[in-house]
Amino acid sequence: MMQSALDLTIAELEKIRETSDHLPRASKNALAQLQSTYSAVASATVTPALRQGRRDADMLPGKSRLRHTESNKAHMLGLVRERVCACMNCAHLVRSRIQTVFGVGNPDAEIMFIGEAPGADEDQQGEPFVGRAGQLLTKIIKAMGFAREDVYIANILKCRPDMPPRSLGNRAPTSAEMQTCRPYLVEQIEIIQPKVLVALGAVAVEGLLGTRGAMRELRGRWHSYSGTPLMITYHPAYLLRNQSPSEKRKVWEDMMQVLDRLGKPISEKQRNYFL
Ligand code: URA
């Protein structure tokens, strides 16, 4: 339906361009863009939800899955990234940010790690988890047998929460900021369709599930985000503040559950590993 409507529109515009004195008001460039957007959508499996004209953000995994091919995931993510880059939804964050921080990694990743929001380092570099907490996350990912490029890393918020002038550190996102930004993450998850989600810390849990709870009760157990298995674990920044080996070991045990769920073999060395 969508395909034939677009085909007809494009054919009609081309006919007018070739036969009429009045050129249609669509450039070749615009037509090419239309065509490429159409190709990306058409090569996904179109579900009843899409036929009803719902937006991507409403198509939650498990409810009505669009099955994207590997090659168009990057394209679809690129379109969301463009909207995030131009986002002006939170005027205070638009004023304070250096840049938006979209997400990084494999568009076809099996695992997606979700943090809370960019900090100062991420705001500077435009990539999530590149500061001290990010270095610890990278170490965890490597210990699991992956490279950073194999997984996908994103945050609930795409802008660094603003801070009073000359103050150091970062602040947690507000519930209102999370609600405003959440649809972008929902779209990222829908496009990537990871086998497992990992929520890092209580803020990520609130952003994803809309619930607040004690991390000691939430972590280490399987939850579900719209049909996708969700492991909750401590945020790496918590491990930097609390250097207790037992807390670090808990995170590692949570990650071994993730490996198990993915059907990855866990070596003896990995079983005995301490972060
Ligand atoms: N903490 C987060 O939650 N996200 C980042 O990107 C960096 C630090």
Summarize this entry quickly.
This protein is of the alpha/beta class and 275 residues long.
Helix-strand blueprint:
Layout: H1 2-19, H2 28-42, H3 48-51, H4 70-85, H5 91-96, E1 104-105, E2 111-115, H6 120-125, H7 132-143, E3 152-155, H8 175-192, E4 196-200, H9 202-209, H10 215-218, E5 222-225, E6 228-233, H11 236-241, H12 245-261, H13 268-271
Protein model, in words:
There is one protein chain. This protein is an alpha/beta fold and 275 residues long. The protein has one domain (46-271): Uracil-DNA Glycosylase, subunit E. Helices cover 49% and strands 9% of the residues. It contains 13 helices and six strands. The chain has a six-stranded mixed β-sheet with strand order 1-3-2-4-6-5, with helices on both faces. Helix 1 packs antiparallel against helix 2 and helix 4 (70-85) runs antiparallel to helix 8 (175-192). The longest helix is centred in the first third of the chain and has 18 residues, at 2-19. The relative contact order is 0.12. The structure holds uracil. Residues 115-119, 122, 128-129, 131, 133-134, 155, 237 line the site of uracil.
